[in-house]
Amino acid sequence: MRRFHPRPTPARQQGAVLYVALIMLILLALIGLVGMQVTGMQERMAANYLRGNLAFQNAEANARGTEADIDAALSAGGTYPANQEVCDPIFDPLTWANGLGTAAKSTYTRRVDKCFAASSLIVGAKQNEETGNIYEVTVLASDADNNAVSSAVINTVFIP
Predict the structure, then answer these.
(1) How many helices (H) and strands (E) does the chain have?
(2) How far apart are alpha carbons 157 and 66 in whole angstroms?
């Protein structure tokens, strides 16, 4: 009958497993930190996209509301008083919006049908200066009424 004798352990062990395990733990911790940073960045990007989209939707809604007001005034047989009824000075939407600030909500209308001459398709016929009512509608809106982060400017041409 054989007896089981355990192998004798070396008197001096190296402990390499401990070092490898510590390095693996450090690598896993670094991967976790990088993952948290990426997730935080994606969350901020999604929030900024939401804010910009809300500002655009608010500006779009205000522009369509102004166009409905113009259409209602003209359909009732009246006139719509635009902010600018003449062509000069030239209106620049960007300069106008920058002068208002980001938290503002404003609409600017300009009648542009007098700014260009229309002509008849028949050669030699009398030119007609009345082209109807054509309005340039510019709207600035932000994502929220208080503590706005994002703003959007929409510039449209409306022909009722």
Answers:
(1) 2, 3
(2) 12
Report the 10 Å Cβ neighbour count for 42. 10
- Cis, peptide link before residue 89, omega less than 30° from 0: yes
**How many Å apart are CA 151 and CA 100, to the nearest integer?**
11
DSSP strand pairing (151-158 vs 106-111): unpaired
pLDDT digits (tens, 9 = 90+) for 98-112: 888 766 789 999 998
Say what the pTM is. Answer: 0.69
Q: Where are the beta strands (DSSP E) in the chain?
A: 106-111, 135-142, 151-158
- Give the chain's radius of gyration (CA, Å): 35
Q: How far apart are CA 149 and CA 90, in angstroms?
A: 29
CA distance linking residue 105 with residue 94, whole number of Å = 14
Which tokens in the block code for residue 6? 């355990």
For the record, the structure tokens of 106 come out as 């404003």
Cα-flanking dihedrals φ and ψ of residue 129, to 5°?
-85, -20
